[in-house]
């Protein structure tokens, strides 16, 4: 019998709030550019693969405060549907891509990244896959999100594209 390939790594199976103390690579205690650079550097296995598809775990907020924050932090008149969807799910993951993931993740961690991470700030860098071209990362980003949705059925996985 062939052993089934592991579908998701162990760190995906433990929500950050169950890790005590904070897991390695938390973004709540380590959010400077140099600390993020160290975390990102650990994931690089090929110097010629420069395009990152990254997964952040984000902090949950109750629906009421998520709605209030969305109206205040985003330039919107009504609360977007994803805010409510995410607030009703405990585990929140964000999948993004960048050729400069250190800067991009730092921006996410300091409320200057995506709308999603302005409302649900990242607390942990879960994963980075590296790809050789921008086209590869654009193709792999939605696949990564689909894979996580399939295997982590209670997680809300944001992948705005
Ligand atoms: Zn922490």
Task: Give keywords.
161 residues, alpha+beta, four-stranded mixed β-sheet, 7 helices, 19% strand, binds zinc ion
Task: Summarize the structure in words.
By secondary structure, this protein is an alpha+beta fold. It has one domain (22-158). 40% of the residues lie in helices and 19% in strands. The chain has seven helices and four strands. Strands 3-1-2-4 form a four-stranded mixed beta sheet. It starts with 9 loop residues before the first helix and ends with a strand. The relative contact order is 0.22. The model has no long low-confidence stretch (mean pLDDT 90). The structure holds zinc ion. The site of zinc ion has 4 residues, from loops.
Question: Layout of SSEs?
Answer:
Elements lengths: L9 H4 L19 H10 L8 E8 L4 H11 L7 H7 L3 E8 L2 H9 L5 H5 L2 E10 L2 H18 L3 E4 L3
The chain binds zinc ion.
Zinc ion binds next to loops.
